[in-house]
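hey
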């Protein structure tokens, strides 16, 4: 059978990259008779456009509105956007006639999933975090299949249709070569350990500010690779140079955005300091790296803090709240990890449980199963 798949979701790299990772597997590795066609349906945004264009996936944009717990200035505007997005989704699905919907979840998926259910199109939603948001709690009740990444999330969804399969990890994030990373960045072959600071697809201002504040002390002990985010890169570089550190020649290597080279940097790093998004945690786990997780204080449903403490509870990382992400605590924890082989061993062992090497294949197979079951039911 040929396969027509609608991808739904958006807003962050964590919502987009798993969609295209599964799509790539369906297209290249799980080839169905008649081929596979994809259409991305989601909000209009530069990141969405760029990711889908790079993956050669067609796009249709719709209006999307967030589900709010409280009355806000955007409450009434979003009330208007959601039904409009639903109507747009009805027309798009009628035109494309998909066999199955793969929804990453979140507010951007709601209109598409509702339209799919109106037509009887099967839906698989994916929940990355340890605690789902309002949108996914709702979507989980009407989806045909729910895939989760943390065992803790199981309590929020119907048991009969929920499976623990993890997060699809893009190939650009795993199986890197440390020597290629060293050559690519021009790192010196020194004894000093390498710390990789990464703030997600858009960078993290708190991490950027803390790195700049304690850069002299960091560079006495370590070589620093610092993913700043494109919007923050020029400021970070100018501040580092103002402090007397020439980029690429002072053991300091800032990078605006990391693409295919990510796996080589992961392979090179001794310790990773990261936000606590679910995709970031999965990539750290896939590379089996000791890490320090710094959750966003005001993340929706406090999901980053819960993610971080789920990993910390298993011994897979150290978690530092933003309010405690200060000079002495950060340096103390970095020193503790890099100087103690037993701590590193325990962290590598603890993080293993958060990597699911077959997540991409399992989700792809579930999508094909849903599509085939739906086709069989229609034939009957």
């Amino acid at each position: 059978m040929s396969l027509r798949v609608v991808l739904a979701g958006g807003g962050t790299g964590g919502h987009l990259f798993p969609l295209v990772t599964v799509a790539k597997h369906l297209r290249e590795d799980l080839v169905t008779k008649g081929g596979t066609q994809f259409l991305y349906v989601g909000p209009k945004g530069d990141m969405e456009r760029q990711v889908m264009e790079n993956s050669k996936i067609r796009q249709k944009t719709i209006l999307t509105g967030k589900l709010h717990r409280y009355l806000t200035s955007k409450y009434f505007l979003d009330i208007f956007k959601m039904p409009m997005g639903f109507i747009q989704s009805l027309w798009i699905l009628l035109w494309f006639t998909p066999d199955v919907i793969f929804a990453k979840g979140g507010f951007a998926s709601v209109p598409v999933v509702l339209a799919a259910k109106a037509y009887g199109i099967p839906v698989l939603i994916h929940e990355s975090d340890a605690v789902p948001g309002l949108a996914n709690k709702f979507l989980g009740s009407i989806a045909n299949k729910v895939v989760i990444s943390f065992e803790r999330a199981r309590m929020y969804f119907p048991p009969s249709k929920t499976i623990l399969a993890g997060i699809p990890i893009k190939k650009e994030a795993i199986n890197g070569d440390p020597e290629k990373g060293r050559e690519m960045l021009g790192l010196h072959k020194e004894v000093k350990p390498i710390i990789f600071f990464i703030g997600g697809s858009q960078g993290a201002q708190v991490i950027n500010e803390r790195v700049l504040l304690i850069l002299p002390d960091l560079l006495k002990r370590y070589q620093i690779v610092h993913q700043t985010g494109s919007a923050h890169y020029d400021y970070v570089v100018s501040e580092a140079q103002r402090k007397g550190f020439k980029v690429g020649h002072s053991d300091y290597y800032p990078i605006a955005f990391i693409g295919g080279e990510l796996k080589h940097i992961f392979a090179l790093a001794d310790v990773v300091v990261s936000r606590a998004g679910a995709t970031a945690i999965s990539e750290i786990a896939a590379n089996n790296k000791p890490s320090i997780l710094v959750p966003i204080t005001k993340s929706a449903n406090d999901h980053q803090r819960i993610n971080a403490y789920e990993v910390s509870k298993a011994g897979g990382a150290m978690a530092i709240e933003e309010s405690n992400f200060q000079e002495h605590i950060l340096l103390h924890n970095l020193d503790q990890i890099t100087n103690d082989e037993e701590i590193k061993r325990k962290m590598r062992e603890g993080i293993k449980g958060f990597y699911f090497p077959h997540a991409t294949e399992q989700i792809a197979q579930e999508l094909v199963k849903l599509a085939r079951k739906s086709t069989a039911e229609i034939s009957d």
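The first strand starts at residue 3 and ends at 8. The chain is about 45% helix and 15% strand.
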